[in-house]
Specification:
The complex is a heterodimer of chains A (63) and B (169). Chain A is mainly alpha-helical. Chain A is built from three helices and no strands. The relative contact order of chain A is 0.20. The longest helix of chain B has 17 residues. Chain B starts with 7 loop residues before the first helix and ends with a helix. Chain B contains nine helices and no strands. Classes of the chains: A mainly alpha (63), B mainly alpha (169).
Chain lengths: 63, 169
């Protein structure tokens, strides 16, 4: 239980950090080893709510 | 369930337990969360008994985190390092919309609490019955947490009955 929750929180934190650093969803998805849709579905709403007005990461293209 | 038989104090402590679990990132409610809930409300002889042994909500929260950290350390993961690396974005708290189910042990606590109330001839289910039920499970996380705080089940139970007697008399 402890490990599962910790991993979940760590993933959320690192995705958020990557978003803030300007990473594209595609690149984040690649690092996580999941599809871009999956990472978007799981994290986009939470992160956008926290950083309103910030464009989706993606200036590096590939998104 | 037996929720409708809960006295106000017991209900509030269970609600507080859920909130504590959410805050600490427990994705199911364990018996140690009941302990935190009782301390959080600070109501009734259960909280009074715990406080008389110097157990505070802050201590118990700290112990809960220390136990999580210890469990992770046993498989080679440092919570401290994770915190340092991931920064402020790392937050164990569970989102508001996430339902937190009762762990099997926690369900049993409530069943035993009800049985204790019946055996004691009480017409209500109070937080003291929940505490008694928690203490019955020597293998439980709550009892381990109390041990780490230097409190053994037997004297705590004795104190509880002492305070009950005083409240009744």
């Amino acid at each position: 239980m402890a490990l599962r929750r910790t991993l979940e929180a760590l993933e959320a934190a690192q995705v958020e950090n990557a978003f803030v650093a300007g990473w594209s969803w595609a690149r984040i998805a690649e690092i996580l080893g999941v599809s871009r849709q999956a990472v978007h579905k799981k994290h986009a709403a939470r992160i956008r709510a926290r950083y309103p007005g910030r464009p989706p990461g993606g200036k590096e293209g590939g998104g | 369930m037996i929720f409708h038989r809960f006295a106000g104090g017991a209900r509030r402590s269970v609600e507080a337990a859920l909130e504590e679990a959410r805050m600490l990132g427990h994705d199911s409610l364990g018996d140690e969360d009941f302990l935190l809930g009782i301390l959080c409300t600070g109501e009734g002889v259960a909280a009074e008994a715990l406080e008389s042994f110097g157990v505070t909500l802050e201590d118990a929260r700290g112990e809960s985190e220390a136990m999580l950290s210890g469990a992770l350390a046993s498989i080679g993961i440092s919570l401290e390092e994770i915190r340092k690396e991931a920064g402020d974005a790392f937050d164990l708290r569970l989102p508001e919309k996430r339902r937190i189910p009762f762990a099997p042990g926690a369900k049993k606590v409530l069943e035993r609490a009800l049985a204790r109330a019946v055996r004691l001839g009480d017409r209500y289910l109070g937080s003291e019955h929940i505490l008694l039920a928690i203490l019955e499970n020597a293998e439980g996380t709550a009892v381990r947490m109390l041990a780490r705080l230097g409190v053994a089940p037997e004297p705590l139970e004795e104190r509880l009955f002492e305070l009950r007697g005083r409240a009744a008399g």
